Structures are given as C-alpha cells and as structure tokens.
Amino acid sequence: MKPFEPTKDGLVIEEPTTVIGGLPVSVLGMEESARMLVRTALWARGQDVRPFYSTSANGQVIALASEDEAFRALVTEADQVHADGMPMVKLSGYVASDEITERVATTDLIHAVARLAQKAGVSFYFLGATPEVNRRSVSNMRWRYPNLIFAGARDGYFSRDQEAAVIAEIVATKPDILWIGLGVPKEQEFVARNIEALRGVGVIKTAGGLFDFLSGKNSRAPKWMQDIGMEWAYRAILEPRRLLGRYIKTNPAALWQIIFHSK
Predict the structure, then answer these.
(1) Whole-model pTM?
(2) Which residues contact 97 (CB under 8 A, 6 or more apart)?
(3) CA dist 171 to 116, 179, 199, Å?
(4) Is the separation of the CB atoms in 27 and 82 below 8 Å?
(5) Number of H helices, E strands in the chain
(6) Which of 208, 203, 150, 200 is nearest to 4 (CA)?
(7) For site-directed labelling of 257, which of 57, 92, 131, 242 has its Cα 20 to 30 A away?
C-alpha cells in the first residue's frame, strides 16, 4: 500500500504508525517520509485545503506530553509524528507492535526533502530563529541546493499581535512546505492556532532548532554518537547551561514512557 492516495475528495492518509511513549509515531523511514511530503505538497497545490501537518517526537516531547495533557493533544492533532530520537528506534522492536527501523531527525530530513524538492520545483518557507540565523540558513541551503525554490523566509521574533500579519505574509507567498522552527512547545501551539488560516500551504513541518544547524551556529554530533543515541550528550556539552538540566529531567521520564507506554 502506498503511504497515501490523493482522491477527488481529499487526501486519504494510509500511513503505518505505532505507539511509542504514548504517542502515535510514523514507521516510515527517511526517504519514504521525504517522498511523502513532496508528493503531498504537489497534490495540495491550487487547492484550498488544510495543510498536511507533520511534527516530531524526541525525549523532550515524550516527557512533556506525559505530564501535560494539553501539549499531548497538540502533538496528537498532527497528521504525522516522526521518531526523532534513537531510543525510540532502538526500543521499538521490543516494546511496540511495529518496529521503527530508522530515526527521522528533522536535521537530516530537511536534506532528503530538499534533494527531491529542487527536482520537483517544490518551494520552501523558513519561519523561525533570529534574523541572522534565518538568513544564513536560507543562504546555505541555496548554496547546497542551487535549484531549490524559496517562497520566503522570516525570523521567529514576533508578538501575538503580529501573528495575523505573519500568517498573511506566508499565505501570500503560497509555499509548498512551511518549516517552522520556534521551539517546543511554541511551534506546536502556533500551528494549532493558525493551521486553518494557513490554507494554501501544502505541508507544515515543525523543525525545532533546525535553523541553528543549517546556519552553522550549532554543529551536529559525530555520526557514531548519533548512531548510539548520544547526540543529546554532545549538545549538552556544547550548551550545558541551557540543555543539561533539561536532559537530566526529560531523559529518564522519556525512557520510562517508552518502556511502559508503548504498544
């Protein structure tokens, strides 16, 4: 079965999922996910439909969802939740009904999608980060993918009073895929408030700190650390004041949820 089938009445999602840490998580791999997002964006062009909404779950998201019912609802309202954490992948074969074979980290997915998008003429919009980080993210992606189209971009520093204007600006550019990097839980809250107003956008993908990596502000952990699920430790070493306390709190809570609340 294909991941989805477009019909005259709308987009029928037939995506395989499993429950990890109490959340419905996609079992699609990196390339399958990238193809699905690009095909969905192309299908949605010219149609006044609600954007397809894809978000991600990692230890922080699982821990927060377990203690905050309102946030859990925000995550489960998404059309797709990617596994952006190696413990989810490694333990899925033991604790869940379906095994997740591959981590779909947004910092990697952006490149898988961009490779397809530049061939298909699918456009991006980057929303989030500081003006300089946002600008450098766009510049670096254009350098790496010369044929990639950017419908627009803007930083994430705006007030609630300015939000309607930001939405209007985005909708006017009609991006195929809107990448939102406002951080957890702000980006999920932003989507929940505005998804109906974002009709005309094909796909929304929440992106966390993606732009910090695309801009070169932050570096990825060595591949071996990513593979064994220790990228969080690398990030904590680089930003101990901001991240160490968070990981000490959320990692054990997330592990507990993964082991005892998966099926």
Answers:
(1) 0.93
(2) 18, 19, 263
(3) 23, 13, 7
(4) no
(5) 12, 10
(6) 203
(7) 242
Residues whose CB falls within 8 Å of the CB of residue 21, separated by 6 or more in sequence, listed in order: 57, 62, 65, 66, 88, 254, 257, 258, 261, 262
Task: Point out the least confidently predicted range of 30-39, 80-89, 238-247.
Answer: 238-247
125 DSSP β-pair partners: 152, 178
Answer yes or no: is pLDDT of 6 > 90.
no
Structure tokens at 188: 């999920």
User: 173 vs 55, 138, 158, 178, CA distance in Å?
Assistant: 22, 16, 18, 11
C-beta contacts of 183-188 below 8 A and 24+ residues apart: 183/128, 183/208, 183/209, 184/60, 184/61, 184/64, 184/208, 185/64, 185/71, 185/74, 187/55, 187/128, 188/55, 188/71, 188/74, 188/75, 188/78
Of 176, 166, 238, residue with least CA distance to 202:
176
State pLDDT tens for residues 144-189.
999 999 999 999 999 999 999 999 999 999 999 999 999 999 999 9
Beta bridge mates, 204: 53, 178
The alpha carbon of residue 183 and the mean position of all alpha carbons in its chain are separated, in whole angstroms, by 10
What tokens appear for 84 in the block? 């952006």
Torsion of CA 117, 179, 110, 226, to 10 degrees: -170
User: Phi, psi (5° rounding) for residue 163?
Assistant: -60, -40
11 Cβ neighbours under 8 A, 6+ residues apart: 4, 5, 40, 43, 44, 49, 52
Count CB atoms within 10 A of the CB of residue 26. 24
Q: Is pLDDT larger for residue 221 or for residue 75?
A: 75
Cα R_g (the chain), whole angstroms? 18
